[in-house]
Amino acid sequence: MVLLPGWATDGRIFEGVLPGVSAVTTGPLRPEGFSRRLAAFLDRTARGPVTVVGWSLGGFLAAEFAREYPDRVRRVVLVGIRREYPEGDVGAVLRSFSADPGSCLSGFYAQCFFPSQMPAYRRFRAGLQAAYLREMDGGALREGLSYLASARLSGETLPACPVTIVHGEKDVIAPFAEAEGVAREGANATFHPLPGAAHAAFLADGFRAVAADG
User: What is the CATH number of the domain that holds 95?
Assistant: First the structure.
């Protein structure tokens, strides 16, 4: 199983999420050339097709990888995805990040958990958030925003393998209806709403069962 994090996070965000699956971090997630690098990594480490779990930005990358390397992927799990991020929204985040990176990221992290995953947010804020703010790589974060400005998902761009789309019903970053619509369009896609979950739905009750199914 391959776990792909969202913007401004890394593999550490998945620690403890799936029993038996180790979260490995190799630094900031850089979309440019990512599929090629992941394929090379799997050449060295995987014995067969893998399940790729992608959250938010990682969801776009997961779908992209499965389209480009269909023989490497048996299933894709997309969490907190949307069809696309409006150019104006991405531009606003970039301006905010350029003006005050720490404040921008702190606000973004809060949105990932708002309004319903406050205990998880308090744990994140007391631990991992400080590391992210201290270690932030401005170039990688800007590259991620540039990628999000042009990334697209629809039934037509979903990979041919089975696709599981998981979405928090309280997500304030990625509209619930968009994820549901993408799933409805995909011939091989199933949709799994998580009641009460926010954008960081992989930390919510019920995610483990959905991700492990199949």
Answer: 3.40.50.1820
User: What total number of domains does the chain contain?
Assistant: 1
Rounded to whole angstroms, the Cα distance separating 167 from 180 reads: 8
Stated pTM of the model: 0.96
pLDDT of residue 212: 84
Most confidently predicted of 12-21, 43-52, 66-75: 66-75
Given a contact cutoff of 8 angstroms between Cβ atoms, the answer to whether 4 and 58 are in contact is yes
Boundaries of domain holding 53: 2-212
- E strand or H helix at 79, and its extent? strand 73-79
CA-based end-to-end distance of the chain: 12
Give 168-210 pLDDT, tens digit per residue.
999 999 999 999 999 999 999 999 999 999 999 999 989 999 9
Q: Give the ranges where the chain is alpha helix by DSSP (H).
A: 34-45, 57-68, 87-99, 101-113, 118-126, 128-135, 138-150, 176-185, 207-212
Tokens, residue 10: 């890394």
Q: Burial level of 205, CB count in 10 A (0-12/13-18/19+)?
A: exposed
DSSP state of 84: -
Query: Average pLDDT, whole number, for the chain?
Result: 94
Residues 6+ apart with CB under 8 A from 102: 133
Centre a 10 Å sphere on the Cβ of residue 200 and count the other Cβ atoms it contains. Answer: 27
